[in-house]
Amino acid sequence: MADETHSHERPERVRPRRLEPDTTAYLLEVKTSLLESLGDDGDDTKSILLWNVLEELAPRIASAASDRHACEIVEVLVEHMSPRQLSFFVHKMEGYYSHLWTNRYSSHVLQRILSKVGAIVQAEVDGSLETTEDDDERSKNVPTMATLIVAMCTEVKDEWITLVNDVSASHVLRGVLCALAGRAPVAEKRGKKGKHGAVKFENLPKKR
């Protein structure tokens, strides 16, 4: 009986190490360089810059996503990543999802990523995913986004009830459901003074 009771307890959450201040400063420099490159140097420079920071940050991606100072910078970087760069980013989060779903900062990063997942998975399925040679080379050992989302859900499968009732994780769960349904969450403001956005759902465009 004791063993049966223990099997239903929530697994202990694995937390990433605290992010070093030097890494936060580095990310801020990268963000500035990225935004400056958007108008002048084209997609190639942006892609190289993002791959360089991803490989540099790889062991600390979960730490950066859940850091209150770095998370907003990470969201800016995520917004400009290619599908394979996003897959690389998600792959490096594995092992920390229970923490990342429930952390107030990383949950926003995950929602940002999940808003892009449906379109990426659809492109993987129909063979229309656009990649560069650099993308293919640097992400050659990274699974597809579809596989990564399944791995994410599997990692937290024993915590669904807890996550549904968590103020941060419940929003991530909504993002997962939207992605699985092929819909992207779209934030809308509620009134002039509303702090939080309502969410409507838009169907992803169907391939003709």
UniProtKB/TrEMBL annotation:
Keywords: Repeat. GO terms for cellular component: 90S preribosome; nucleolus; preribosome, small subunit precursor. One of its GO terms (molecular function) is RNA binding. InterPro entries: ARM-like, ARM-type_fold, NOP9, Pumilio_RNA-bd_rpt. Residues 189-208 are annotated as: Disordered. SUPFAM superfamilies: ARM repeat. It comes from the Eukaryota. GO terms for biological process: endonucleolytic cleavage in 5'-ETS of tricistronic rRNA transcript (SSU-rRNA, 5.8S rRNA, LSU-rRNA); endonucleolytic cleavage in ITS1 to separate SSU-rRNA from 5.8S rRNA and LSU-rRNA from tricistronic rRNA transcript (SSU-rRNA, 5.8S rRNA, LSU-rRNA); endonucleolytic cleavage to generate mature 5'-end of SSU-rRNA from (SSU-rRNA, 5.8S rRNA, LSU-rRNA); ribosomal small subunit export from nucleus. This is PUM-HD domain-containing protein. It comes from Saprolegnia parasitica (strain CBS 223.65). The lineage of its organism: Eukaryota, Sar, Stramenopiles, Oomycota, Saprolegniomycetes.
